[in-house]
Write a structure and sequence with these properties.
Elements lengths: L16 E2 L12 E3 L8 E3 L9 E4 L2 E4 L3 E5 L10 E2 L12 E2 L13 E3 L16 E7 L2 E12 L2 E8 L10 E4 L2 E10 L2 E7 L1 H5 L3 H15 L4 E5 L4 E4 L6 E2 L2 E2 L2 E2 L4 H13 L4 E5 L4 E3 L4 H5 L7 E3 L2 E4 L2 E3 L20 E4 L9 E6 L5 E6 L5 E4 L3 H12 L2 E2 L2 E8 L12 H9 L4 E4 L2 E2 L1 E2 L6 E5 L9 E3 L3 E11 H6 L10 H6 L12 E5 L16
Parallel strand pairs: 1-2, 6-38, 21-27
Antiparallel strand pairs: 2-3, 4-5, 6-9, 7-8, 10-11, 11-37, 12-15, 12-31, 13-14, 13-16, 14-15, 16-17, 17-18, 18-19, 20-30, 21-22, 22-25, 23-26, 24-25, 27-28, 28-29, 31-35, 32-33, 32-37, 34-35, 36-37
The protein binds iron/sulfur cluster (SF4).
């Protein structure tokens, strides 16, 4: 999508008819204005607005996609289930809809209206699109539901791989534009920080557009190809293995080199005289390591390159790369400087392995104390295979991080700081599309949610540019009143399901029923909210 390609008028052109119920005209409108976000698209009949979420249908502004309503599974023996079919979403077995359920509101505590497809209200002081009453364990509850428009948002991407993707702080590019950077590596994973207000607003228009495009793709669990300056090209997709320089990653390391030595030391000691676990960060050397000492292994006399940290643990044995253990080496012996005379003995058996067991070689020292590669004995191979067995599958994890501590709060309460305080006191449960959201400590309402636990196609964009993402605030009804909530705008569940808050033309609300993801707790049932 490029800016305004889907809409055919900019604010100020023609005489728009406001389509939010505040100015219907009897004359056939040429265009109608969508005021659900600051873009204020002027939309002709039969066309959609710039975000593809709203359309002009015979002079009426309609929402194009349905609001997603979650339902708790009533029994595991539910009638025939059909695959999740949100438009554009891939079939996902964790998200299914029961076609036999007719919306029986006696089960209203089993139903949760999500922000996905719920619409936005603008300007901010207007109450959120849905403020829904419900009951949970007999307690009167209210859920404030909206699609937030997030200018302050990013994705934190964890890529399970030892391979060198790029130096920390290097730019990550999507379609040539800088959209984020490599951030601090974590245990067995390289981390990216993508998006954010700097790329959305601080660069060129193209940079902003590419940033939201990438964020929307990844948030919606679609693949996207990125490059890192001075590093790798990758295909990232939430819940799937990363593809680095055209190669699909398989294994996430069992641990660093030192950890691998510690884990398997007893097994190694029974078959080898020395084991070196090659790692870009901490290479482990068994007989020097405390694990080898505790097993009374004599020193082998191996002399390693790199910087010794503590006994049996070496940093910087090589440069980062796509070789053994995330280093740039293909020849493991290159990290061995020599063998200490009088200590090393001919016939010494040496295993060198990577942290995933994908690379492993077996050597025996000859009379000149030179390691000579030999076929790996079965009992050694078995341990190397066990390293691989203990590796988890390599995955990409995508967390959405959004700042909801700004104007969005005005759709919840007339006194926004009370919402912030109530969240910090755990009186309000924050969810994103029904998925649990971690709320960062400190000021503001900075939430983080795993996109894999959200319904498919939860994310959209508007050309300001910004990301559209669902967010729900659930609390006791009396707490909502206490924080100055929009009590007059509370809808019963029945009312909420029969129309959208902004949709006053009498047309039924398009909705889509999904069973909640098994991994998610029920959004209305979280203590201490319910005491
Ligand atoms: S971009 Fe904004 S104004 Fe345009 S259709 Fe979408 S929500 Fe409405």
């Amino acid at each position: 999508m490029t800016e305004h390609t889907k809409t055919d008028g900019l604010p100020g052109m023609d005489m728009p008819v406001h389509a939010n119920g505040e100015g219907h005209s009897l004359a056939k409108p040429v265009k109608i204005e969508c005021n659900a976000c600051p873009v204020l698209c002027q939309i002709s009949d039969g066309r959609t607005g710039a975000c593809d979420r709203y359309a002009n249908r015979a002079g009426v502004l309609v929402r194009v996609d349905p609001v997603v309503v979650l339902r708790r599974e009533l029994s595991s023996a539910s009638p025939a289930l059909v695959a999740f079919d949100r438009p554009g979403a891939e079939a996902d077995n964790s998200q299914r809809v029961d076609p036999e359920w007719n919306g029986d509101l006696l089960h209203s505590d089993e139903v949760f209206v999500t922000g996905v497809g719920s619409s936005t209200t603008y300007p901010d002081y207007k109450p959120a699109p849905f403020i829904v009453a419900s009951k949970a364990r007999g307690v009167d509850m209210v859920t404030v539901v909206t699609e937030g428009i997030f200018s302050y948002c990013s994705l934190k991407v964890k890529i399970d791989t030892d391979r060198f993707l790029g130096a920390e702080q290097a730019n990550v590019r999507y379609r040539g534009e800088a959209v984020g950077h490599v951030t601090t590596a974590e245990y067995g994973s390289q981390m990216l920080s993508l998006g954010g207000v700097h790329h959305l607003t601080g660069g060129s228009k193209k940079e902003g557009r590419m940033t939201v495009e990438l964020m929307q793709l990844l948030g919606n669990k679609k693949p996207a190809e990125c490059t890192i300056d001075g590093g790798a090209s990758m295909v990232i997709q939430a819940g799937k293995a990363p593809i680095v320089n055209g190669v699909e990653e398989q294994r996430m390391r069992v641990g660093c080199g030192s950890a691998a030595v510690g884990i398997f030391a007893r097994q190694f000691a029974s078959v080898a005289d020395e084991v070196v676990v090659v790692d870009d960060h901490i290479t482990g050397v068994l007989t020097e390591h405390q694990a080898g000492k505790c097993l009374d292994m004599p020193r082998s006399g191996v002399q390693m390159r790199g910087r010794k940290s503590t006994p049996g643990r070496y940093f910087q044995v090589a440069n980062p790369g796509n070789g053994w253990g995330g280093t740039d080496i293909d020849e493991p012996l290159s990290i061995i400087e020599g063998w200490e005379e009088g200590v090393a003995k001919p016939g010494l058996r040496l295993l060198m392995t990577s942290t995933t067991g994908e690379h492993a070689q077996w050597y025996v020292l000859d009379e000149a104390l030179q390691p000579v590669e030999q076929p790996m004995p079965t009992e050694v191979r078995r341990i190397v295979e066990r390293i691989g067995e203990n590796c988890e599958p390599s995955l990409c994890t995508v967390l959405f991080l959004g700042g909801a501590g700004g104007s969005l709060r005005a759709g919840v309460t007339e006194n926004p700081v009370l919402l912030t305080r109530a969240i910090k006191r755990a009186l309000v449960n924050v969810t994103c599309g029904g998925a649990p959201a971690y709320v960062w400590p400190g000021g503001g309402i900075t939430v983080m949610a795993d996109v894999m636990r959200m319904p498919g196609n939860s994310f959209g964009t508007v050309p300001t540019p910004a990301i559209v993402a669902p967010i729900e605030f659930s609390m006791r009804r009396d707490d909502y009143a206490a924080l100055g909530g929009h009590m007059d705008s509370i809808l019963s569940l029945e009312q909420a399901l029969s129309r959208g808050a902004w949709q006053d033309d009498g047309a039924p609300l398009a909705r889509q029923w999904l069973a909640i993801d098994d991994a998610n707790p029920w959004p209305l049932g979280q203590p201490p909210m319910l005491g």
